Amino acid sequence: MKSKFKHVGLIAKQGDPRVADTLLRLAELMVSFGCKISIERRTAANLLIHHNFPTCDSAHLGETCDLVISIGGDGTLLHTARSLIDHDVPLLGINLGRLGFLVDISPDQMHARLEEIFSGNYLEEQRIMLIVSIGNARGPLRVNHAFNDVVVHKWEVARMIEVDTYIDERLLNSMRSDGLIIATPTGSTAYALSGGGPIMDPDMDAMVIVPICPHSMNYRPYVFDGNCEVEMRVQDSSCPHSQVSCDGQISMAIQPGDVIRVKRHPKRVRLIHPPEYNHFQVLRTKLRWGEHS
Amino acid sequence: MKSKFKHVGLIAKQGDPRVADTLLRLAELMVSFGCKISIERRTAANLLIHHNFPTCDSAHLGETCDLVISIGGDGTLLHTARSLIDHDVPLLGINLGRLGFLVDISPDQMHARLEEIFSGNYLEEQRIMLIVSIGNARGPLRVNHAFNDVVVHKWEVARMIEVDTYIDERLLNSMRSDGLIIATPTGSTAYALSGGGPIMDPDMDAMVIVPICPHSMNYRPYVFDGNCEVEMRVQDSSCPHSQVSCDGQISMAIQPGDVIRVKRHPKRVRLIHPPEYNHFQVLRTKLRWGEHS
Amino acid sequence: MKSKFKHVGLIAKQGDPRVADTLLRLAELMVSFGCKISIERRTAANLLIHHNFPTCDSAHLGETCDLVISIGGDGTLLHTARSLIDHDVPLLGINLGRLGFLVDISPDQMHARLEEIFSGNYLEEQRIMLIVSIGNARGPLRVNHAFNDVVVHKWEVARMIEVDTYIDERLLNSMRSDGLIIATPTGSTAYALSGGGPIMDPDMDAMVIVPICPHSMNYRPYVFDGNCEVEMRVQDSSCPHSQVSCDGQISMAIQPGDVIRVKRHPKRVRLIHPPEYNHFQVLRTKLRWGEHS
Amino acid sequence: MKSKFKHVGLIAKQGDPRVADTLLRLAELMVSFGCKISIERRTAANLLIHHNFPTCDSAHLGETCDLVISIGGDGTLLHTARSLIDHDVPLLGINLGRLGFLVDISPDQMHARLEEIFSGNYLEEQRIMLIVSIGNARGPLRVNHAFNDVVVHKWEVARMIEVDTYIDERLLNSMRSDGLIIATPTGSTAYALSGGGPIMDPDMDAMVIVPICPHSMNYRPYVFDGNCEVEMRVQDSSCPHSQVSCDGQISMAIQPGDVIRVKRHPKRVRLIHPPEYNHFQVLRTKLRWGEHS
């Protein structure tokens, strides 16, 4: 087999002992495919301490590899996708334990699925990523990425927060709630779903704003085109007990006067799947569609 | 003033006595602008019986006019938009009584707003329209249009219906419910909203499927790109008490074996608004956003 | 064993061939317990044609028996409960195929469970039943019962209906919707759940009104005490395309001027369960609580 | 007029300058009715510093007065009701600014309404209050009251919490969510409504559990009788970022092993209303029922 991918980066979930075995098997499989491999430094330090694979910073995986494989759950892939978005490197997810929405190859199918994929027989999905920036006139912007969602929310529970939301500089509404979720189609099956949002086709170029426990009954999730820019202004009195989260993995404080802007990243996350991948099948399995009690 | 539009078609809601006065004022205003006008035949027959404006079939308004004005409510504009979609003629709505989502010029502002618009100072929105076709191997297709929504639903109440839904030929799910709504962004503030659907930005090229009273709790509205094609197959035993509706204005029966296909029309509905038109303002007014009790 | 019950009535779902075998086994089991049995006349005529068990009208089962066993699904038990509510006879449900919310003894456990129950080791639940009456000044009342729900709904789909609802003679609201569901706690896991209603503890003395696709976003299910009386007045223009259903099994037309009254029946439905019966376990099984995908 | 009430306690919202004027007018009105009055100490210290009305601890108002009037919003009445629940003293609410669900007499109607009420012409509602206790084997119980709701929730946002809920010692379910709201009928129009709960008739003896952003789609609000006792056990790993709130006004930390118990208080909150009080009218006004856009 002449491998479609020449240099593969490997990155794994931290702190899960089941990962080491899968990671080692995967590294050996890549070698047997004739690929050069690089292991993300922390992954190697924690999991492959007795082996001598080349290691590399997460940031450099994207520069040097033509495929990065993430081993873990959806959370690990979210992290990997955010850190590699500036490069055009495609991603592939090996799930540990149970099927994820993003990581759809299980360790026991790994050999067969990867053989197929590395021979060039695969599907590539392109999904949008968000850029969130928080800033005001007094200081520099703080910028982060989000693959699932940007959430503006209170962290002290007795209070609600009041947020003015603008889409492309026009006021959409002023809302009192526990928070607002701005989700990508990828994130529409994550926290936004718990908040009552719709499910979106994963390759759509669109976002949805889902209010969390809105104070009024009149609000509904709002879906809009991916080329729109969202701006949120938290009322000053709400700022001390508000913050912004990206994918539930990064938190940023908000100061009075801060403007929170969310827009689509110019690049797409490229997800590699086996050729028989069917997103609707994943939805039906994960959401138990079709099981009538 | 040199009018931007040369030949204007007028079509009005049937059976509402308030229309005649507005229609006549509008016709005279058009004449004062130097426009040629054509009145839709039924409109003229019912409302302008003592006047001698040229009349014309609804189908021909689209061929000859470079603007069609609809007088009535959102329902009148839905009907007008469906019947003129094959032509590229822009539409403008005068509302009677109360603000609609589609008809946003009130009779008392008519003179000023139209003067502005006819001088070339206006906004044009492009919105998607749906084509629904019902057919099977035995007979010809029945085809209709829908600007808000295509609804597959039971009409006998004690029964639920079971529908298999495919998007681009892949099974999305099999669902037991009272029915399914396929809505455009325009229709997302109509029946789909009552069914629990999200609100969609009106110029999006997207659709949403909203289940009506689904038998299982696992279903959520599903949003997808406007270039997808939806296919629905109603289980044979459900057909005798099922039907398909377009915009709540047209009904079509379903036979066992029928396949219901919904896709975007290749042309867009062109809606003309005054320059200060703000869709979010209409939403805030109609949905009472920002009124905290 | 000295049987707790002396005279047992048997009533079965019509038109399901699996019933006959279970029914015969059940009849023989009752005889072996030393019970006198009576078979509901239609059940006997359709299912036990070669046997000579005594038969009896459904109405008389309640007068002569001290236990009635319903074989089928929840629908059969709903029917049985409505027809026997005027008598104080306890009911027990054998489910065919799959677990129901009401029928919780499967045919293969029948022998063991009934032995236990007939020895006096059982739980008895008391649940409320509704009486619905439709009337106006010109004619007699039409009266029916409902164990799950009374539904006022449109049957022609393009229209919504407008209903004024009164609780204990005070106006609750005027609502435009596809219909209204008045459910008992028993019915809270049936159609009302599809409409977005809460789940209610089955032995509560309470009802809930659940709007179906309300035209406004401001409405929510309304829960109230079982001693309240509900009155609904359908706007005259809505009557021609409205009707009232009981448990989805009985339909009644509505005329302009009709007043629809719903109140709790003075008697309770008495449901007999095995001693280890746990309603929450049934909920968790039927609604798949605790299965995290 | 011979006053129905002899000794009236007055308690007002802190920190709102509009209160002082209303409070003074109210005190003078009570004197003119021939009533003895006592001002809650903090209220007097902050608002009536130049007057010499007798003052008294909040706890003693309940012992000595036969009516307590709360001036402020619903929040002030919630606080007053919790602190006086052990006494049988009826409460009356004067609202500042806008109509509340609980405080329904506006300052400008105060004179006329109170004259009516003090002459004995009034309605008295009885509403349930909750007792929440948190404890484990190692230490004493911490006990608080809640008139609206007891909320178990995370306060660190990236995490969900996992809670096992028992009703009368039987497991209802294990749920992963942002939190759980246990609401009284009074609280059903407060935070529980934002979480998607039903509205409950205020004099019902019942509670509802409303999950906040549940991780699974299968959960619905659960309504049960007021004589049930709820027990919640937060999974140990969730405890460090969980807490319990009462009416959004009191917070209590949770330790691993803690058991949170919620039950109805043996006494009822007695609310006094003008004779023409109509709860449904308040609902229609506050929730804008009947306003069709």
Description:
Four copies of one chain form a homotetramer. With 293 residues, chain A is an alpha+beta fold. Chain A folds into two domains: 7-122 and 274-286, Probable inorganic polyphosphate/atp-NAD kinase, domain 1 (Rossmann fold, 3-Layer(aba) Sandwich), CATH 3.40.50.10330; 129-266, Probable inorganic polyphosphate/atp-NAD kinase, domain 2 (Tumour Suppressor Smad4, Sandwich). Helices cover 21% and strands 39% of the residues of chain A. Chain A is built from seven helices and 18 strands. In chain A, the strands form three sheets. In chain A, strands 7-6-18-15-9-10 form a six-stranded antiparallel β-sheet, covered by helices on one side. A six-stranded antiparallel β-sheet of chain A has the order 14-13-11-8-16-17, with no helix packed on it. The longest helix of chain A is centred in the first third of the chain and has 15 residues, at 18-32. At the A-B interface, strand 10, strand 12, strand 14 and helix 7 of A face strand 10, strand 12, strand 14 and helix 7 of B. Strand 14 of chain A pairs parallel with strand 12 (199-200) of chain B.
